[in-house]
Design a protein that fits this description.
6 helices, 27% strand, Pyrv/ketoisovalerate_OxRed_cat, oxidoreductase, 2-oxoglutarate_synth_KorC, 2-oxoacid:acceptor oxidoreductase family protein, Pyrv_flavodox_OxRed_cen
């Protein structure tokens, strides 16, 4: 099994953390994973995307052209990457900010991630709303593995944010 995932959005939306969480979760489960970040010229507000490859066998290239799955958080990223998903692939998109302008050749699902994150008082948790929805569909990892990964990346300095991200994740699972 090898899965390629592209995650794209504005800087500051949690694109990179989402990719890191997926890659680290794979390693916790004894799988191979590569995370490759790509930033636009700005850090916050500019475009950002990352590529994650997860496999049960060694990975020989960190890059790919077309992905199995696309998680897209904003309209400019949707426009840029909508044609880079394999025909049998899947796109999960932030329906709060993205309106599909054409019927994709692959499966897609919209989640009102911004609206759901705002409902728990943390607008920055849209990435975890989408992560919950993505993992509900793919069953790649369970919630406990995601929380372990989140604790690793947040450490003690951001430990107070774990509960709200867990809430966002659960909202995504229910979406």
């Amino acid at each position: 099994m090898t899965k390629t995932i592209r995650i794209a959005g504005f800087g500051g939306q949690g694109v990179m953390l989402l990719g890191q969480i997926l890659a680290y979760s794979a390693t916790l489960k004894g799988m191979h994973a590569i995370w490759v970040p790509t930033y636009g010229p700005e850090t916050r507000g500019g475009t950002a995307n990352c590529m994650v490859t997860i496999s049960d066998t060694p990975i020989y290239s960190p890059v790919f052209k077309d992905s199995d799955d696309l998680i897209v958080l904003n309209e400019p990223s949707y426009q840029k990457f909508k044609h880079t998903v394999k025909n049998d692939g899947f796109m999960l998109y932030n329906e709060s900010l993205i309106h599909l302008d054409e019927q994709p050749k692959y499966q897609s699902k919209g989640v009102k991630a911004n609206d759901l994150a705002i409902s728990i008082g943390e607008s920055r948790a849209i990435n975890f709303v989408l992560l919950g929805a993505y993992l509900k569909r793919t069953n790649l990892f369970d919630e406990q593995t995601i929380i372990e990964s989140l604790k690793y990346f947040f450490g003690s300095k951001k430990e107070h944010l774990i509960d709200v991200n867990k809430q966002a994740f659960n909202l995504g699972q229910a979406a």
